[in-house]
Design brief:
- There is one protein chain.
- The protein is an all-alpha fold.
- 71% of the residues lie in helices and 0% in strands.
- It is built from 19 helices and no strands.
- α2 packs parallel to α18 (353-376), α10 (187-197) crosses α12 and α18 (353-376) packs antiparallel against α19 (381-409).
Length: 411
């Protein structure tokens, strides 16, 4: 039955999923299901407490979001940027087992998460995870209109990781995807979605240049307006002290990144891979700059041409983790967008071994990348991202050839 569903559109267009690839797809999905179940068993409680069977607190990283929200609601927004103070708030929520989780997001993000503490911790966590997941599943159903699409969404390892540890990867993917989907018909709405994504600035780094070179000026203006509005609203709500706390926190977070106080094995960037390989911070930053420039060049090259939305959106989502030194495996939830678009393309136009292999690697990379790094100190995730961009670039070149051929034969 599953093979019939996977091949339904392929047969209509002459594409075919052979038995070998079908077996590979089934094995990858089975491994993903095991990872999802493991995340649920390890990170979620079997009893009505805030702790799971391993003695860790439920939601893990979410405790920082709820603690920051609680501080903001009690008029102590600036204290969220005090590492000792927010850790004390985290301990008061889930007990002494709470790991120290700093708050490094800008005040507009604090403004947006403030309502979370109006709900009890378990209810807030459920809303935080389930609402974006449902929204993303519906959105991906539009990108890849196959009956299986919504059911496969939680199995993608970037999404299952975000769900397991209570992170915001699914929400980020939803904001980027909604912005891309609305870009051509509702540019102002698209800009607002991109502006919300900018609350996690490192993930919005390439969005502005893409909109600029693509001629989407209304969306770019709306994005800038949303960012400025949120900045002003957060200043009105929390005062100058919160912004001062954020700016004071930036060099601290930068020092943590350079010195290795952050877990490189859980990251996905060229900088982290370089540091794990033994390079100095200066050398790692140099390679990261090359990666950032390369990602920017790819995005500009694709967005300045009239490529289909699915190609431009895939390039942007795949390039974002390559452009920043600071991204974790759960941030790769963004890759559900190029996976959905490219999988639908190969499903309807034909299965290619290289493209399909890269899609499978991309699907597994968020979890398999850090597991391999833990065992070997070798982080291959940036290489997988580069391969994904190579697939997208080749598709873009094929699109140009098709357009050129059509123009040459037109009367």
């Amino acid at each position: 039955m599953a093979e019939t569903l996977l091949n339904a559109e392929g047969r209509r267009s002459g594409a075919s999923l052979g038995r070998g690839w079908f077996a590979i797809v089934v094995m990858v999905l089975a491994a993903s299901a095991v990872m999802l179940v493991t995340d649920v068993v390890v990170n979620w409680p079997l009893a009505p407490t805030l702790h799971n069977i391993g003695g860790k607190w439920t939601g893990r990283d979410f405790v920082a979001f709820w603690a920051a929200s609680d501080l903001a609601l009690h008029g102590q927004a600036a204290q969220a940027y005090d590492v000792a103070r927010i850790h004390s708030a985290e301990i008061s929520i889930v007990g002494e087992s709470a790991k120290q989780l700093a708050w490094t997001y800008p005040p507009p993000t604090l403004l947006l998460v403030s309502p979370l503490a109006l709900l009890p911790y378990p209810a807030a966590l459920a809303v935080w995870l389930l609402l974006p997941l449902v929204g993303l599943a519906l959105l991906l159903r539009r990108l890849a209109p196959h009956p299986l699409t919504p059911w496969l969404v939680p199995l993608f390892t970037g999404i299952s990781q975000s769900l397991g540890i209570g992170q915001n990867g699914v929400l980020s993917a939803l904001m980027l995807g909604a912005g891309l989907l609305a870009l051509e018909r509702r540019p102002l709405l698209a800009g607002c979605c991109f502006g919300l994504l900018a609350c996690k600035p490192q993930l919005a780094l390439l969005v502005g240049p893409a909109l600029l070179v693509g001629g989407h000026y209304r969306a770019l203006a709306a994005m800038a307006g949303m960012v400025l509005t949120l900045a002003l609203a957060s200043w009105i709500a929390f005062g100058t002290s919160a912004w001062q706390g954020f700016f004071d926190m930036l060099p601290v977070a930068t020092d943590w990144l350079a010195s290795g106080r952050v877990p490189y094995v859980l990251m996905t960037t060229v900088f982290a891979a370089s540091r794990l390989a033994g390079l100095s911070a200066a050398g790692a930053y140099a390679l990261q700059w090359l990666s950032t420039i390369g990602a920017l060049v790819v995005v500009v090259w694709i967005w300045r041409r009239p490529h289909p939305l699915w190609l431009r959106g895939s390039a942007l989502a795949a390039a974002i983790p390559m452009a920043t030194p600071y991204a974790y495996s759960y941030d790769l939830a963004l890759l559900c967008l190029p996976i959905a678009w490219l999988a639908w393309d190969v499903l309807t136009r034909g299965w290619r071994r290289f493209d399909s292999a890269v899609l499978m690697l991309t699907w597994l990379a968020p979890s398999a990348g850090w597991l391999l790094a833990v065992c070997t100190n070798i982080l291959v995730t940036p290489l997988v991202l580069a391969l994904l961009l190579a697939v997208i670039i080749r598709r873009a070149l094929e699109q140009r050839e098709l357009v050129a051929t059509a123009g040459a034969v037109a009367p």
